[in-house]
Structures are given as structure tokens and as C-alpha cells.
Amino acid sequence: MSIRVLIADDQAMVRAGFGALLDAQPDIDVVGDAADGERAVAAVAEHDPDVVLMDVRMPVLDGLEATRRILADGPERPRVLMLTTFDLDDYVYEALRAGASGFLLKDAPAADLVHGVRVVAAGDALLAPSVTRRLIADFAARRPAGRAAPQAVRALTPREVEVLRHVAAGLSNQEIAAELVVAEQTVKTHVSRILTKTGLRDRAQAVVLAYESGLVTAGGR
Fold it and tell me: Where are the 4-aspartylphosphate modifications (predicted)?
């Protein structure tokens, strides 16, 4: 089945360009677009997309608040992939806390956009690229690390905590497997258990938890 995508951006040329690119893929179907956050919320209810490409800054209702409203009903709602530029602000960090599955720079190569849609549609988070690691670390650096791990983290085994630290560093399952000298399927199992025990939506929220609980610090693992 095709991945149903909704594009929310206040620039008509961006919506048209991204739409043409994604519609050209055999496994992706652009089902609608929106010029502001309020319209995006309404369009999600109307079109029921699998993935929403959400611009951070839009009129009427910004991408952050739109993301909160779209994801308010829980994990069965669509995945949100934030679109932003290099002049980032706290919106992106807060969007991850609200449940967004990651973010892409608007000037990323076309192949990255297509790949990003497929990644989040599959239930993963778009957090592996090195630029994303640096940006998340930058947001975390603006906030002091938690003095004590929350109850959710204390429920994890030592190995699961170790895996969570690697996830927060932006490593893929394959990279974590190489670091720990275990099978990739073992890492997938650990990640699944981490999400279940902490009640988190995906790897994006796991990264936020790792930073906020003090398991990792900005710029390090």
C-alpha cells in the first residue's frame, strides 16, 4: 500500500515542489496540503495521512502547536516529520517532545526527503544523520540535565540504559550492534522493550528522555 502524505508549509512553491517529488515515487501518494497549521490539523482529519511533513514556522497556527493537536489522540495518529532550516529555535526540540518523529532540513537532497518519509512511515525516527545529532545536542545544551532519572528510566535494565544512550547519540540499530558486539535483531528487541517500559512513541521521544534524565549530555554519549 502507498504511504499517504500530507504537506504543511506556508510557501506554495515548497508544497508544489515536495508534492511533485513525492508523488513521483511508486510507493508514496500525496493526499493533500495546507498553508498553515490550522488547515493542517483539519486536513489530517479529512485525509487521514500516514505521514505529515510539517513546516516549523507557519501563520495562524505554528507547526509546533499543530503537531501537538494532531498527535493529541495518541500513537494511532500519523507520524509527523518536521521541516526546518538552519536558523533553528526551540520549536524543533518542543516538537520532538510533542511526539514528532524527527526533522529534516529544507535544503536536504531530494533523496533524503523521500527516505525520511519512508523511515517515519515505517515507525522509526529520523535521527541518524550527523547534522541531526548536532542539532538535538544543541537544544539539550540549553537545558540542564535532570538530577535524577525519572521512574521510566529506573525501570530499564543496565543493558537497556546502555542502548538508550547509543540511541540518544543518533546511532542506528546496525551501528549500536557493532558498538556492543551483538546481533542487530538483539538491538531491535532492546529498543522495543525500552519504548514499551517508558511508554514512549518512538526513538525521537527516547532521545528527549535520555537528555532530560541526564543519561547523556550535549555533545556526548
Answer: 55
- Quick: pLDDT tens for 146-175: 444 567 788 899 999 999 998 887 788 888
Q: Which of the following CATH numbers is that of domain 3-126: 3.60.15.10, 3.40.50.2300, 2.40.30.170, 1.10.30.50? A: 3.40.50.2300
Number of other CB atoms surrounding residue 57 within 10 Å:
16
Please name the residues in contact with 212: beta carbons below 8 A apart, sequence gap of 6 or more.
Answer: 140, 143, 145, 146, 150
Give residue-wise pLDDT tens across range 116-150: 899 888 877 766 444 455 555 565 565 554 444 56
CATH architecture label of 145-212? Orthogonal Bundle (1.10)
